[in-house]
Amino acid sequence: MKTNKTYLTDAGIQKLNAELTDLTTKQRPDLAKRLRDAIKMGDLSENADYIAAKEDQAFIEGRILEIQEMLRSSVLISDQTSKQEVAIGSTVTISEADGIEEKYTLVGPAEADPTVGMISHESPIGQAIIGKSVGDTVEVVTPSGTSTFKLIKLE
């Protein structure tokens, strides 16, 4: 089985570790108690509390496995990225033809959140600007059509 790399910043790794700790030390034990209480109620086939707890258990166990795999396959995104070419971990300022500038940091898909300026290197914009330098212009095909961006600043 081939394992894909999960690109994460140090903050992303810390966030996943905190979530994993919460799931394994708080949520899992709380859920076990809920299950025990539901089982004590008797007939499990029509016990809504038991059914809901089992569904929650499946979700929690799945999320634990997902986080463990992400951490196991993680590659730390260095803050020491090149200031010459866009790479994972770079913070870039781009502008569309309308002149409005947008600032993004390229991260892995697990940490991507465009609402706070973090886009995946696998997104259309991320793929288009990887390897580019300040002053370069790229065309990006997005769900809303083709856009042209100019790379204004690279941090």
Task: Give your account of this protein's structure.
- Helix 1 (about 10-40) packs antiparallel against helix 2 (about 50-70).
- The radius of gyration is 22 Å and the shape is elongated.
- It has helices at about 10-40, 50-70, 125-130, and strands at about 5-10, 75, 90-95, 100-105, 120, 135-140, 145-155.
- The strands form two sheets. It has a five-stranded mixed β-sheet.
- It has three helices and seven strands; from the N terminus they run E-H-H-E-E-E-E-H-E-E.
- The protein has two domains: about 5-75, Helix Hairpins (Orthogonal Bundle), CATH 1.10.287; about 90-155, Chitinase A, domain 3, CATH 3.10.50.
- About 15% of the residues are buried.
- The chain is of the alpha/beta class and about 160 residues long.
- Helical residues, percent: 40-55%
CATH H-tier superfamily of the largest domain: Transcription elongation factor, GreA/GreB, N-terminal domain
Largest sheet: 5 strands, mixed
- Given as residue ranges, the uncertain stretches (5+ residues, pLDDT < 50) are none
CATH architecture of the largest domain: Orthogonal Bundle
